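Appendix B. One record, verbatim.
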Amino acid sequence: MNVSSFTTVNFVNLTLDSTIREAISAFLTHRVDIGCVTTDRNLLGIIHKNAIYRALLNNYPLDSPIRPLIKKNVVTIQKDQSLLEAREIMIEGNVSQAVVLDEHQKVYGIMSKLDLVNSNMTVLADTLNRMKSLVENLQDAVISVNSNLKITTFNQVALDLLRLNGKSLMNSPIDRFLPHFRRWLIETLKTGEIQNAKRISFEDLSVIASFIPIREMNKVTGAMVVLRDVTSYEIIANELETTNRLKKILDSALELAYDGVAVTDQHGHITMVNQGFKELFANDYHKEILGASISKIAPQIPSHLSLMFDKKIDGELIQINDQKCIVAQMPIYQDGQRLGAIFKIIFRQLDAWRDILLHMEKLESEISYYRGELFRISKDTNPFAHVISQNPQMKKFKQDAVIAAKSLSNVLITGESGTGKELFAEGIHTISGRKGTFIKVNCGAIPEELLESEFFGYADGAFTGAKKGGKPGKFELADNGTLFLDEIGDMPLSLQVKLLRVLQEQEFERIGATKTTKVNVRIISATNKDLSELVKLGKFREDLYYRIHVIHLHIPPLKDRPDDIPLLCSHFINKINRKTSKNIISVSQEVIKSFQQYHWPGNIRQLENVLERAFHFCQSNLIQLEHLPKELNLLDGPASPPLSKMTDSDFTINRKQSISQTEREIILQALKKYHGNRTKAAEILGISRTTLYQKMKKYQIKEEFEFKITST
């Protein structure tokens, strides 16, 4: 700041011909002690009221000119000088007031000691504000105490980091909230020296603390502690330490390996080898092996099969340096990404390994089975693993959903009610890797008058009954995440306008707030309505439609996926079994056929409800048509002969066929349930293992890909 900001520009301006009367009148009007005598604003001198007092005491007439009273030796300062320079000039001139001149040396105004004091106070206040703003915007937490160890200041970072309440913190002893800092604060107050980089742990936090003395007039009057959260860094350091330890273990294991082993990255460059590998290729290649291409070091190995075509070779006979060797190779994957490949070369005493290899061949078949089981279990971690389907349309839908998840575009999911739109939306959010939360809003379930506050939140005191402190809306909660707008076709037009603005600008204002909130939200919408038709009818904004309709995914209804009915029935039966004490094996083939012919207006949700209802009314191990709700009209199957025309033999034949069919179905479902384990299947059926084999032979049940009835 400079002089011009604190100069009194409304000053008394007199001429050489001005009288004492005029001077007194001007002084009274402006309430000042001096006046400037100028010609065309050029300074000739000043006149002080004390000079006028002395003239009046000497009986000067009021109409006398002021010329004899003018002081020509005047202290002046420039308007663009600093306040510090002005202060030094006035002290050196021993004056309480000075004339301020502009760049043309004309009178600009008067600066007094009071003006200097006001300027210093303003600068001090500005400095304090800057310091406060600096402390508040530091990434580190700051807390200060006085000489009695009572808290005097703190910033918001400290409150957030230490999970403290600012209202109860001020003027409280440091022991009450942060006893871990007491020792170092006392040391700082005592020695007046900075205590640097003290690692302190408490609760679930690890911080690096520095303790700094606060001085006033060269006396220590308090201390400040500056904290940096290093919890995440320590976790990373521990992980790195674990990784290094595992690498040392792997190196040791490779060296102890009897045969040659090499590991490459995804480009085929060797990253690890053991001594056996070096010995095998020592005569062919004397340069550095690590970092070289395996195709150059060991051209005999068909490494491209694993590195380019993702093939696993369990064992292949090749010749290296006139020596027969068996090579096994396998690509290495992590999270679906190929990291490289591992190669194992057996070349020592192959004859002794022959019997072992025969045994390994047997074990490989078992490993293949368990690998398949492991792969099946690992698939459960897939966000779409809960979508039970073998239908080609659904497989294509899931592939499209994965592609959509990895993009940044908004997604519109359409489909009939009960097809699982919300499950797919949550799966897309999971695959996308967005760090924020998955927030869902049912646009058709919230009253229209509450929709805006639900979406955008409201500020403190926005309306009567508003929650104190305000409330964040769904957009704030979904920041850096995904907002799922279910039944978006039911959203009122008034809110569609505001939603469109948020999607375009990525910012909004809470109800009753003046501050704009910026967010980074991805929108996934869902509806069972035809939005394009609603646009034509004027019930849905066209611009909003194209904004949310970047990627369109349509879930086929259950009636178009009859091949999924058996899988879904098995899934829901197992699910309900886990929740109840019953142990129903499956549903009959008649039920499956009837289900596949039904139109399922409620889709998968309706199917689950139907099975749950039938589950409770079923008293056997198999759900039959009679256990299903009558309103489905599934009992209308092929007509049976009239009872009046049925003979005793007809009754006997039908009874035997029904019993045989039911028994066959129960055995099949038991074998499928336990993946071919005859012992467990016999146990749940209440028969011996021998009886089970006899009945399997009787009903021609054989295991191919899965258990089924074969005909001779």
